[in-house]
Amino acid sequence: MKVAIYVRVSTQHQTTENQLVELHEVCDRNDWEIVEEYNEIISGTEGIDERLELFKLLEFAQRKKFHKVVVWSVDRLFLSMRHLLIVLSQLKDKDINIYSYKQGIDTSIFV
User: Fold this and answer.
1) Most confident stretch, 8-12, 36-40, 55-59
2) What phi-psi label fits residue 74: left (phi over 0), alpha (psi between -120 and 50 degrees) or beta?
3) What DSSP letter does each residue of 15-64 carry, written as one string?
4) Which of 16, 29, 69, 98 is most exposed by smallest CB count within 10 Å?
5) What Cα–Cα distance (Å) separates residue 50 from each residue in 9, 43, 54, 92, 107?
6) Do residues 91 and 57 lie in contact, with contact meaning Cβ atoms separated by under 8 Å?
7) 23 Cβ partners below 8 Å, 6+ apart?
8) How large a percentage of the chain has pLDDT more than 90?
9) The pLDDT of residue 83 is above 90
10) Active-site residue 43, yes or no?
11) How many CB atoms lie under 10 A from the CB of residue 64?
């Protein structure tokens, strides 16, 4: 299965390294092929248009480049209900699921 990894931290004083290490291990264990990786340092409260890497992820999702988005935690993708609805609806429209490591959520099991 082709997947995209999305990681985010809020400040320059933080690092995404721990998220990447764990998510690469999850992908290896599940035999998921990482085809895209999106890594950004920006507050989750910023709009989707300001979050360049999330914007790119959603663009590539429209082209069906991957089947699942793998995140360390759901709050890496969205903090507000508005962003949740936008991201989930755009991914769902293309039959792309989300796997959140920290919460143990995999939307593909709800199909």
Assistant:
1) 36-40
2) alpha
3) -SHHHHHHHHHHHHHHT-EEEEEEEEES-TTS-TTT-HHHHHHHHHHHTT
4) 29
5) 14, 10, 9, 22, 26
6) no
7) 5, 7, 70, 71, 72, 101
8) 67
9) no
10) no
11) 11
